[in-house]
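INTERNAL AUDIT FORM
Audit reference: QA-55
Scope: verify that the stored structure record matches its stored sequence.
Auditor: D.O.
Record contents follow.
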Amino acid sequence: MISEQYSEMMKELLGSRYQEYEDLLKEKPYRGYRINHLKIDDDTFFSLYGLSHQKIPFIRHGYYYQDSAAIGNLSAYRAGLIYSQEPSAMAPAELLDPQPGENVLDLCAAPGSKSTQIAEMMQNRGLLVVNEINPDRARILLENIERHGAENCIVLNASPKQIAERFTSFFDRVLVDAPCSGEGMLRREEEAESNWSFANVRECAVRQRLILESALLTLKEEGILVYSTCTFNTIENEEVIRGFLADHPEVELYPSGELDTNNSVFKREPGMYRILPMDGGEGQFMCRMRLRTQIHAPVKMRYLRTSLPVREAFAVLDPLVHRFAYYTETGGYLYGSDQPFPDLSCLHVMREFVRLAEERKNRYEPDHALALLRDPGSIIELTEEEYTKYISGEVLMKAAERGYHTAARNGFGIGLVKADGTSLKNRYPKQYRIRQR
């Protein structure tokens, strides 16, 4: 049961639409998924997989999910072909509209839904930096980035202030999907209702302003800043933005012509957008801004010297990986990239571009991330029965040439196996395996 305070706030916000909103709270929440265009297009996907696919009207490659099966156990999900995401949460990345070749930051990125969407839109070209301050959530972010096959992405576990100091005036576009009171989660999470209070709303608003201040410092002149929350109240949304703009005359609201002209579901103010549960999603507020004039001198980025991997590493990796232009070794791991590695020694870096291999007892073992690239090398196709055994961690009795291969369904990699000639030793990471009942 929602509180009287919350009801009164929503009545004031929604007016004549309030009863429609209250009725919807009794219904099941919307579910959705996106198709990952780093790996597959929509038509090919639906020719291979029989998922329900009613189009989400305001998302290019987004669909409502109405099937009963858990998305997380589908081979399409494990191969990174789709990402399960609440429909309205897909809209902020669309509003950001990142372009291939740009420098882009997702400042509050976990669990990675918007980060993976941005990676798709950038087509693995340019630099995508994704950050999460909470270490546990940052690990989930990393898992999702890897499964998606993003090759141009650096994953950080740092504070917004640390990011601002290292990347001053560096990014073309910045997304701040700010931590909020989560009013759009009421149909999805019971604790969202019990945790709601005006005190928490005001506390969130203070934190959101601080995050926006750091985000602004990272933006280039003419750069785009998108602020979003999954909450409804004006305190965390319009009031946060109006206060921020009042303190920063160098920033202006910057409406999106595409959203304004092509999507009728948005309740519009200039540069500010809402998706309400009545519009086909659980709820999202978004604001698009532009930095008109430079605030600080751009950071001079330093880059690491590339190091050629030793012959033993290449001998292991050769069947599985492209020849990258740049390599670096750190912490016992070998990384590859098609662009130079920035010096981020002052930050907690969880992953730079693509992890290729780990050194273990004077030998190299290829990393799980290799199997999830668009071109994962030597493939062994699994049947549906073998797939179920594989994600459960079982050894597969299947003959193959000795060495490492990628286990795949429909030609798309899921994880690694090591063949001894008569069987396939399972290399699927233990933390991702499912338990059979």
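Auditor finding: record pair retrieved intact. The chain has three domains: 86-291, 311-371, 378-432.
Action required: none
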